[in-house]
Write a structure and sequence with these properties.
- By secondary structure, this protein is mostly helical.
- It has one domain.
- It is built from 5 helices and no strands.
- Helix 2 runs parallel beside helix 4 and helix 4 packs antiparallel against helix 5.
- The longest helix has 41 residues.
- The chain starts with 11 loop residues before the first helix and ends in a 5-residue tail after the last helix.
- It comes from Vanilla planifolia.
- It is found in: Vacuole membrane.
- Belongs to the CCC1 family.
Length: 169
């Protein structure tokens, strides 16, 4: 099998060079990806669910209860999906290290950390439309505030993701 391709895991020095101030942003990649996806999904799916309920019924309680149920279900789903995905990645990397008879030279994926980051971020994202709708009696104003809060939070999450990844404006 002369054409067999070997997967190699680069050493720490090759992939995780710290920035000028000593911060190593590569170490954030696992949990940051899970957190950004979780927050955006929590925000968009919960706001969309609440807007759909609000379009069918002008009851604030129904909107908030459905949003809360969506938040709990979505956070659980995101955590389980992220855990399984990252655990699969970990299995692949560990098997390759064993085949190469090497020890890990850099941080391996952590399925529990990724799952927790994803669930927490989903809940944080879902909190924006939930809190924006929970205190407004007027149906029209409540719908507009949920849409505005979701748009503002998406912008804020994008900015935070860039900052945590080490991008400067």
């Amino acid at each position: 099998m002369a054409n067999e391709t070997k997967l190699t895991i680069p050493s720490n020095a090759e992939t995780t060079e710290p920035s000028a101030d000593g911060t190593n942003f590569s170490n954030r990649a696992q949990w940051l990806r899970a957190a950004v996806l979780g927050a955006n999904d929590g925000l968009v799916s919960t706001a969309s669910l609440m807007m759909g309920i609000g379009a069918a019924k002008d009851d604030a309680k129904a909107m908030v209860i459905s949003g809360f149920a969506g938040m709990v279900a979505g956070a659980c789903s995101m955590a389980i999906g992220e855990f399984v995905s990252v655990y699969s990645q970990l299995d692949i990397e560990m098997a390759q290290l064993k085949r190469d008879q090497r020890v890990p030279q850099e941080g391996l994926p952590n399925p529990v950390r990724a799952a927790m980051a994803s669930a927490a971020a989903f809940s944080l994202g879902a909190a924006f439309p939930l809190l924006s709708a929970g205190f407004i009696k007027s149906h029209r104003v409540r719908m507009a505030v949920v849409a505005a809060a979701a748009s503002l939070a998406l912008t804020m999450f994008g900015w935070m993701g860039r900052r945590l990844a080490g991008h400067r404006w």
